[in-house]
Design a protein that fits this description.
By secondary structure, the chain is mostly helical. 82% of the residues lie in helices and 0% in strands. The chain is built from six helices and no strands. Helix 3 packs antiparallel against helix 4. The longest helix has 36 residues. It is flat.
Length: 176
């Protein structure tokens, strides 16, 4: 019995470390401009294109307007997400409020998608055809990595859900 509890504890510890590690990696990616707050074009994607001095200067002239608009949209999105988060964590379920908050967020997300597409479209005027192909290949690779990471997180959740519950903890909480 004691060995089962110890083995169970080790299993939970390992699953917990994997989940925490996965979350830490995801947070690191978000902080560096991955899918999330940064979004859009990553420095590494541009760095690997071996841009000329003229290309870098042209991108430097292109960025300020996009950054300004992106920051304004991100602030609107932040407010909308806070409203959504408040509704989703409330003591009572307000489906109508959540639907309205979701509809309010949709135009912001739409504008952000258009802004990213406009930036990439304008960037293509600066890059050579070969650089555009390399950029598209890198973006597809990033999309594939995000998909694999999402699948991995889902598999970890499924594994955790299939593990037997620690009944001794439940019994201690109920006083049995």
């Amino acid at each position: 019995m004691k060995n089962q509890i110890i083995n169970r504890s080790y299993q939970l510890l390992i699953v917990g470390l994997i989940v925490v590690g996965s979350q830490s990696v995801a947070n690191f990616v978000m902080a560096r401009g991955g899918h999330g707050e940064g979004g859009g074009m990553h420095l590494k994607m541009l760095w690997d294109l071996d841009l000329s001095t003229e290309q870098k200067a042209a991108i430097g002239r292109l960025l300020p307007a996009y950054r300004e608009e992106k920051e304004a949209l991100m602030e609107k999105r932040h407010v909308a997400r806070e409203t959504m988060r408040t509704l989703m964590t409330a003591d009572t379920l307000d489906e109508t409020g959540i639907r309205e908050a979701s509809r309010a967020m949709a135009p912001i997300m739409e504008e952000m998608a258009v802004l990213r597409a406009r930036f990439v479209f304008d960037l293509k005027d600066i890059l050579s055809p070969e650089q555009v192909q390399r950029l598209q290949a890198r973006r597809e690779g990033a999309r594939d990595r995000r998909h694999k990471h999402r699948q991995y997180r889902q598999e970890m959740m499924d594994t955790w859900l299939q593990m037997p519950a620690d009944d001794s903890a439940d019994a201690a909480e109920t006083g049995q």
